[in-house]
Amino acid sequence: xxxxxxxxxxxxxxxxxxxxxxxxxxxxxxxxxxxxxxxxxxxxxxxxxxxxxxxxxxxxxxxxxxxxxxxxxxxxxxxxxxxxxxxxxxxxxxxxxxxxxxxxxxxxxxxxxxxxxxxxxxxxxxxxxxxxxxxxxxxxxxxxxxxxxxxxxxxxxxxxxxxxxxxxxxxxxxxxxxxxxxxxxxxxxxxxxxxxxxxxxxxxxxxxxxxxxxxxxxxxxxxxxxxxxxxxxxxxxxxxxxxxxxxxxxxxxxxxxxxxxxxxxxxxxxxxxxxxxxxxxxxxxxxxxxxxxxxxxxxxxxxxxxxxxxxxxxxxxxxxxxxxxxxxxxxxxxxxxxxxxxxxxxxxxxxxxxxxxxxxxxxxxxxxxxxxxxxxxxxxxxxxxxxxxxxxxxxxxxxxxxxxxxxxxxxxxxxxxxxxxxxxxxxxxxxxxxxxxxxxxxxxxxxxxxxxxxxxxxxxxxxxxxxxxxxxxxxxxxxxxxxxxxxxxxxxxxxxxxxxxxxxx
Amino acid sequence: xxxxxxxxxxxxxxxxxxxxxxxxxxxxxxxxxxxxxxxxxxxxxxxxxxxxxxxxxxxxxxxxxxxxxxxxxxxxxxxxxxxxxxxxxxxxxxxxxxxxxxxxxxxxxxxxxxxxxxxxxxxxxxxxxxxxxxxxxxxxxxxxxxxxxxxxxxxxxxxxxxxxxxxxxxxxxxxxxxxxxxxxxxxxxxxxxxxxxxxxxxxxxxxxxxxxxxxxxxxxxxxxxxxxxxxxxxxxxxxxxxxxxxxxxxxxxxxxxxxxxxxxxxxxxxxxxxxxxxxxxxxxxxxxxxxxxxxxxxxxxxxxx
Lengths: 505, 305
Hints:
The complex is a heterodimer.
Chain A: H1 2-15, H2 18-43, H3 52-61, H4 69-90, H5 97-120, H6 127-134, H7 146-169, H8 173-182, H9 189-203, H10 212-226, H11 245-272, H12 281-307, H13 309-314, H14 317-321, H15 327-361, E1 370-374, E2 377-381, H16 383-412, H17 415-438, H18 460-470, H19 476-500
Helix pairs in contact in A: 1-15, 2-12, 2-15, 3-4, 4-5, 5-7, 8-9, 9-10, 10-11, 11-18, 12-15, 12-16, 12-17, 15-16, 15-19, 16-17, 16-19
Chain B: E1 3-14, E2 17-28, E3 32-36, H1 43-50, E4 58-63, E5 66-67, H2 72-77, E6 79-82, H3 94-103, H4 110-119, H5 135-147, E7 153-157, H6 165-182, E8 185-190, H7 193-196, E9 202-207, E10 210-216, E11 226-232, H8 235-244, E12 249-252, E13 255-260, H9 264-274, E14 279-285, H10 289-297, H11 301-304
Parallel strand pairs in B: 3-8, 3-9, 6-7, 7-8
Antiparallel strand pairs in B: 1-2, 1-4, 4-5, 9-10, 11-13, 11-14, 12-13
């Protein structure tokens, strides 16, 4: 009860400061603006397929006094090119694999049919030169009879018409079919998988290039490429890494398992039509929360580094410790206040980001399930619940670093140093690990350094890549135990020092 | 009368310096106790030890019967204090500051707190931020802060520092009033004796970490000789008359000076008048505590400062 009152006092003292209010406004502005900026710059960002400048360039190439048949054909082909570019510009087409393939295909088939027309008329033309300019291959037709040329031309014109229809309807399934055809005579496992994948997408009758299932399919392909093959113990050379073969095996298996899970999730999403990424909302929201926490950790360090030392610097400590409260209670209340403020700030920024992301991307996307793989079966989970858990998880190292600043400021009574050093540790932990690792320092995983960013534990692939980069093997469970042990040591030293201290100023 | 503060054989060393040397002291319920000594005598150190800011190397201290080491919280519950300047949170209003301190008090008495806030006469300025306060206002807010938990003992460390004469007088009146009305013992330290001697019941003089003397201000000493000057027209005649009556006489400007008790003053006057010497003015110069204080602390290291 007494502790609660003291804690309330400490919170009050902090939040009524002008500097706290300024920090709060900055943090809130960030939390609100980031989702909006994401919406504007990341998700609406698309390159046009063609630019006005392209047309200008081709127009400059047109031969003005074209009197030979060669020049006339050249101008005609340029005209076709310019018309198609114009058409793409009018339709505001942006650069995607689908569009670029479609328009290229359309352009070359139209060019080819014009060339064939000229061949039928037996005009006096150097086709090699034309080929070079328009990036096509007309060599194969040079020996054709007129009838054969006519047939080929009809065939190509039909195909052109078909492409024109696809351009009008934007039917993406054409692209899928083309892609599938690359893997038609599959010879290995991978090709067969790809063939099946495109087969599935065609079967699902996907018409739109922006369909999330297309993106999931792309993800599946990417995941497959990331899988690692285990090296046998005999061939394993640790190199610079301090990882033992056992640890290497564990990490590699962890990575491959995670990839398998992701692939399973993507397949599940395609089959059950669950856009579990929430149309960009989830990525935006998660990224913003992660950045919020990075900023908050600095704010928390500043508060924690000052909450004891400032009282000493201003002399207000005197009127605080002559109250009927034992010193350890004062210190505990201060630490609890830091934790409470951290939770409060996270709550406020979470809500602000929630609203801003919801407005930018649609609130309904919050209710799209997360997918998870448990015992080989894909299950659906609440996204909001998962996101709250992840946010709280990421708060653990923030509070730990806060405790570090708190400890330093209690022991050495200097806010600037405590804050500066804590932020330095927070920002430079990766570098510190790498240096220690290079020097062959043996117990890096027992220091707190690898556990100052819990975001790495949310996505196991991040964890594996960090472990491999640092050459140390660690897990979330180990991280929590190590941080708690350090916290207890640090807290006890702080209390001991604060209890024994003569208050001189 | 019960003792509200008992200090027994307290010693404190900071670094190599012996600041307090086997010091003992009692303060009784409801009295105003002055604690006087030159700068560096150990006044603030003793107060800090009393309030638990410093840990003593030796000795024990109890407030209202509670040992500050074993029963810190109970002991502190009975004491309110200002140590050096009453530093408070400048970005909070005076009222918010007091609320913070009131919340730390286990027996939170709202009516009493209102009374305390009224008694220090800050008026509507209580709602202004403390950093806008003058020194006198801060001092008064400091006293309110010290009183807010209904203490039996009020400890004030050099409360007159930096106050103008009017401020000092106001402070004196306020303390007298508080002490009388609420039966609170006041322990007040100062290096300027004259500022506090008028209101104290007892005064202790400290130097070099030792108590030199504890003086009860209510004991009137009639046998003490006073320096008395007579302004007369015939100085030499007056000297002879008094010498004939076995008085030691010193000639000063416009008159003579003798050392006599209070009772003897009219007798001397009569002697002079009988000899037709005109007496224009009689001046009794009290040998003040100040002189005593300077005398007692003379030649000690503390005075050098």
